[in-house]
Amino acid sequence: MKILAACMLAVGAAIAAYSPGADAQPARIKPGAGDELRAVYATPVEVAEGGGIAEASCARCHGANGVSTTKGVPHLAAQRAAYLDLQLRAYRQSARVQGAMSGIVRYLSDDALVKVAAYYASLDPPRAAAAPAKTAPSRPDPVQAGKAAAAACGACHGELGISKTPGMPSLVGLDPKYFIAAVNAYKSGQRKHDMMKSLVGALNDESLGNMALYYALQKPARAQTPAPGDQAAGKAAAASCAACHGNQGASGNPATPSVAGQDAEYLLAALRAYKDGTRKDDSMKGPAAALDERAMKDIAAFYAAQPPQPLNVRRPLTTAEWTERCDRCHGPNGNSTDPLMPRLSAQRADWLEQVLRTYRTGVRKSTAMAAMTALMSETDAQDVAAHYARQTARAVTYVVVPPPGKKKGGK
Predict the structure, then answer these.
(1) Of the candidates 403, 321, 327, 324, which has an alpha carbon nearest to the alpha carbon of residue 24?
(2) Domain spans of the chain?
(3) Do 166 and 300 meet the contact criterion of CB atoms below 8 Å apart?
(4) Distance CA 382, CA 331 (A)
(5) Same CATH topology for 2-126+317-410 and 142-304?
(6) pLDDT of res. 407
(7) How far is CA 224 from CA 41, 128, 232, 272, 309, in A?
(8) Where are any strands of DSSP class E within 72-134?
(9) What is the pLDDT of residues 364-410, one digit of tens each?
(10) What is the mean pLDDT of residues 329-337?
């Protein structure tokens, strides 16, 4: 099998060796492509030489035949040759940093890296991870879970988080980060409110995050409560507030609440609390101290009359939706047909989780992957990694594609 695969590596354009009936399209490679595809054209002799280098330098961590048995170390068997070559060069050039890898490739020539990449690409793919013996319960939809967790809040804060009770704040229009920070402040006692502390004390982080998401995704509307005060005077008095709370009370900072459409009596009570020190916030203490009762009432009336703005918050994707996006580049079920794009199928789940985490945190650089993972949670990464680890890996073969207008045999 290795000899056959090595021979196939010696020729031109790549297609995935899917099972009969698969509808994969050839990923064509132009003759005379650059150095980044050098490993694709390795000869059987070069592949064999690569095997010797790999056995001496790589097998201790990546396992015999490129199948890793070490946590956090990827399988290399049947990985795409050009991709492996590029990543090995990145380690040597410190574009990717990992102590053990950087130390090993430092002493290998370009030619040796090409041969090692071609060797691993020629191997039989690893087996897919087995599905759990006991199927884990499907994760609940976070928005529906948030709605259920927020059911008890409606009596005070209104259906869908739009207040109908003077003195009770609306919960729509609040960035999830601010919502979570505010509730945690009640839990810790930083914000003094005995009833709120008792109500939110039993909420765990997951439930709190789901509630924050649920309210953030609701269509915002003004509180359905009276707002006594002079709105025109309030607009003038609130001029200095825009620097933090945004024009017309629509904040662009997750740490600062939007106050547009908020219940006026609640806003007034909050300003009083900042002024007398019962509510602590250094950024609010000074501005509130300079306001008299009339100005605070007018500011509350002005903001209560402003239309709240929708948040730039997206509904979380399901695992199926995430993997559909990943498959666009990495091939059906993670079986890449592009020699420059890594195969994800049958890869170690712990390695895939680690890679996704490094893209999310910016440790590993890629504009495309940074954009893909920006909204991916830790749970999303775990589920996506587990999905691909259970997919059957397909080997890649290479076949000669004659140039247009040229028949086989050069005639």
Answers:
(1) 327
(2) 2-126+317-410, 142-304
(3) no
(4) 20
(5) yes
(6) 56
(7) 70, 56, 20, 22, 16
(8) none
(9) 999 999 999 988 989 899 999 999 999 999 987 755 455 566 555 55
(10) 96
